[in-house]
# Entry
Amino acid sequence: MATTTATITLASADLLSDNLSLSATQTLHKAGTTTGLDGIQYEKLEIAADVHYDIIDATAAGANKANKVYIANKHTDSTKYINIYIKDLVVGRLYAGDWMFIPLEAAAATQDVSVKAISAAQVIEFSLIHEGKTLVAYS
Amino acid sequence: MATTTATITLASTDIADNALSISNTMTMTTAGTTTGLSETTGLARKKIASATEVDLITAFNTDVTALKSAKVYIKNTGAATDKYATIGIGQAAGTPIYIGRLYGGDWMLFPWDAVLVDGDGYAASVIDGGGNHADNHDITIQMNDATETVIEYMVFFE
# Structure
């Protein structure tokens, strides 16, 4: 069993009339347990413009689990964004420099995580921390 | 203009042979600019003591502008690691697309397009760059049982 933590800090001195300072840490456990997630996929990709790509397949072994997904848009031009999809739904736009961190239920094989960039050569980093995935048989 | 940052640190010394250490800070800006997001719902807390699926954040009732760079933070403040909240996008009365399960202590942060039905002028059945518009893109939540659980959430938007 591995011990993996995810910590977020939200901070602003001027969004509100008082300082915003929020911090939360979670230990990444397998679904319904206190056993740590022990699988990981971590990639960096350059994606073409206006093409819809799957980056994380929802597989039977990962269905209804406590998988976690991290995605970052590494572009530096603030006008460039990537649409993030789950199944066929646009969750939102990751603009240059943005990141997201979500649990992934992947209850059905169609609930892949996919991306579409609005311009060429956009680089993303993503990581799936999981407790199992169905491997693709050699063919 | 405000300056709001969100920093994530993912760390493990034993998930692989080499340590995992991912750290990233984003400054929350309005869509396509370097101007900081200046509006927020503030940090809200909601007690949920039912396993019925409900809308946690409704796009229609917020001032969030659709298809921009809104960000949503949600945390399950519960301590029980076998109790979870399923978070989705859509409408509780409709057919949300489920993102994932927030177990006790888990948090998430994600961009939100916050479109309403046919928000970009396409028909509800059309799946396009703006998403599937059969329902408003509310944020839905469903606990796996009726144990009272406090959910915290906050939206940053323009």
About this structure: Residues 119-132 of chain B have pLDDT under 50 and may be disordered.
